[in-house]
Amino acid sequence: MPYTDEQLAGLVRGDSVHRALYTDPAIFDIEMQRIYGRAWIYVGHESQVPKTGDYHTTRLGDQDVLMVRAADGRVHVLYNRCPHKGAKVVADGEGCAGKFFRCPYHAWTFKLDGSHLGVPLKQGLEGTSYDPTDPSFSMRRLPRVESYRGFVFASQSAEGQPLVDFLGGVRSSIDNLCDRSPVGEVEVAGGIFRVMQRSNWKVFYENLHDTMHARVTHESSYAAARDEAKEMGEMPLELHIMDGNGEPYEFWEKLELRAYDNGHGYMEGIFNPGAAERDPVSRAHFESLTGAYGEQRAREILGMNRHNTVIYGSGSPHTVFQQFRVIRPVAVDRTLIEIQTFRCKGAPEGVFKRAMLYANVINSPSSNVMPDDIELYNRCQEGNATRGGDWVSMHRYHGTDRVEPDGMVSVNGTSELPMRNQFRAWKAYMEAGAGTGADATAKGDGACC
Ligand SMILES: [Fe+2]
User: Fold this and answer.
1) Contact 112, 53 (CB under 8 A)
2) Is residue 246 domain-shared with residue 195, that is, in the same domain?
């Protein structure tokens, strides 16, 4: 190990972090063990595997895994590895395995929960230590799998907090996302955008609640939106979304930033739901929720005006526009973003169309807004690779964070509290050391739902 635990802890100060956190591949490897080998990480949504045998592959840190629906309806998360020669049993992507998995190399087969089913020409293995009941001849399940309202998380560690405790206060964001459906359920719909960022995974988390960058980084897109609106003589929602980034500093200063344990948090919304209630889509949505929950509850649900939420290690749900930007670290300087959009089941179709509009304007690879950020993430990556200085600043409003029983609240919406909170969690993971994470696997029964 190139770093002692003490050296790792020394890379995070209360008001700054060392640039090695973004640039040193050795630190990335330790993160894969101590954060991604231990924390609850979002795998995917149950609606991505609706029928028996449906599977969906993804990455949990540096591990190839798949989520699969078994015949009894349970969702399992398995390492994508055949125990024979180690081949990935299914190719990256999604599909239906039918009643069982069959490795395309030598036709070893496995039940949908990963357990060993059979091999061809079994007689050739007689008299050897091959034992179909030995778990080492099965596809290995992740030790812990839990679903929260359809969102499936897995942990590579057999021990740790239950999922609901791990999520803490940001459960309310998942709740609000689901409650926007009159039947309380959402489903992934409309395809998934994928964007590879040439930067370290932590930079994106920091940016999600970075209110000071909006009117600077996004000047080109909000200025263009304003010019266009002027020409049109109106500001449609597409332009209104881009225009929001151009609010003056006084606007951002008034927003609330909420930080929770484990690096999670949320930022108040930019868009005014009161104004949105006047448009026909919001009105129809409000009426459908009123029919299901009553007027007061419908107002509460649509009145929760929350912008980005951070589930540290997993990504960022957006409740108002029903997105989940899943953040997958690939290498110290590469991060894959999967952008999922959700349909609120039972809600008017216009609600889903609006979610797709937001995905296209903000999160699509051809968005006018996201490239502004990606350019800056890459500049941070390349600038931090120089010998121009060792520390990255998080000084803004340091020392003023208001402590709550389960986290902290900012005193000003431009505070760098969210970054400090994320690195507080990072440091805690690192200080907890090795030995309780990815190496403590295969003890539990990794299934949910
Ligand atoms: Fe941005």
Assistant:
1) yes
2) yes
Determine which of 129-138, 198-207, 424-433 has the lowest per-residue pLDDT on average: 424-433
Q: Please tell me the distance between residue 262's alpha carbon and the centre of ligand 1 in angstroms.
A: 23
Instruction: List the CATH number of the domain containing 87.
Output: 2.102.10.10
Model-level pTM? 0.95
372 C-alpha to ligand 1 centroid (Å): 7
Q: Is residue 440 part of a domain?
A: no
For residue 253, give the 3-state DSSP assignment: helix
Going from the Cα of 207 to the center of ligand 1, the distance in angstroms, rounded, reads 7
Distance 397 CA to ligand 1 centre (A): 20
Tell how far the Cα of 369 is from the centroid of ligand 1, in angstroms: 7
Beta bridge partners of 136: none
Do residues 136 and 194 share a domain? Answer: no
Distance 370 CA to ligand 1 centre (A): 7
What does the pLDDT read at residue 439?
Answer: 43
Pairwise CA distance, residues 201 & 184, whole Å: 32
Residue 443 lies in a domain: no
Q: How far apart are CA 358 and CA 352, in angstroms?
A: 10
- Are residues 354 and 208 part of one domain? yes
Domain that holds residue 178: 171-432
